[in-house]
Amino acid sequence: MRRIVFLAALAALAGCTAQGSSPPPQSASEPPPEHWAPEPEQTRVLDEAEKARLLAASGITLQWIDWKHRGQVNVREEGGVVRITGSQVQADGPGRLFLDGAVVEIGTGYFQFDGTVRIENTPDAGRVCEADKLWHFAVTQNRPYWRLREFEWCDGLTDYVDIYLPGTKP
């Protein structure tokens, strides 16, 4: 009888996990995660031309590191989900920018990104800013990049994180 009850409970748990509707398991003493969202089944695309531009993005910068020497950005589509991984490393110092996550929606002049943005050791040594949440990037004032629209998200400093449109030069 115990075996049947155990197997039924295990099957129910497997069903919840397979559906992706439950957050990652936690112990009873742990607080709930600050940000948790299921992986999108696919990126919502409202503008196919904007999706093509994003897939061909040509770099990433954080103003504290360098606008002239861009970091690498990898935008790709995996099973209907557009994913972005990018980083920039300060040439003559310890500054670092890193982002990784999934694009939830792409529209004309913007995209929504669900993932991690991390800034380390810039503009001051020891500064570390990291958040895993839903972010909004947009092209404004005909600039050649999508700019992160949450400017003072960490400690009151304004961080300009830019992902460049294809074909733009530093």
Summarize the entry for a quick read.
This protein is α+β, with helices and mostly antiparallel strands. The protein has 2 helices and 9 strands, in the order αβαββββββββ.
Span between termini: 69 Å
The structure class reads: alpha+beta
Helix content: 10-25%
Instruction: Tell me the number of helical segments per DSSP (H or I, 4 or more residues long).
Output: 2
Largest sheet: 9 strands, mixed
Radius of gyration: 19 Å
What does this structure look like?
By secondary structure, the protein is an alpha+beta fold. The protein has one domain. The protein is 15% helix and 37% strand. The chain has two helices and nine strands. Strands 1, 2, 3, 4, 5, 6, 7, 8 and 9 form a nine-stranded mixed sheet that branches. β4 and β5 form a beta hairpin. The longest helix is centred in the first third of the chain and has 18 residues. The N terminus is likely disordered.
Keywords:
globular, disordered N terminus, nine-stranded mixed β-sheet, single chain, 170 residues, 37% strand, alpha+beta, 15% helix
Write the layout of secondary structure elements.
Blueprint: H1 2-19, E1 44-45, H2 48-55, E2 60-62, E3 72-78, E4 81-89, E5 96-107, E6 110-120, E7 128-138, E8 145-148, E9 161-164
Parallel strand pairs: 1-5
Antiparallel strand pairs: 2-9, 3-4, 4-5, 5-6, 6-7, 7-8, 8-9
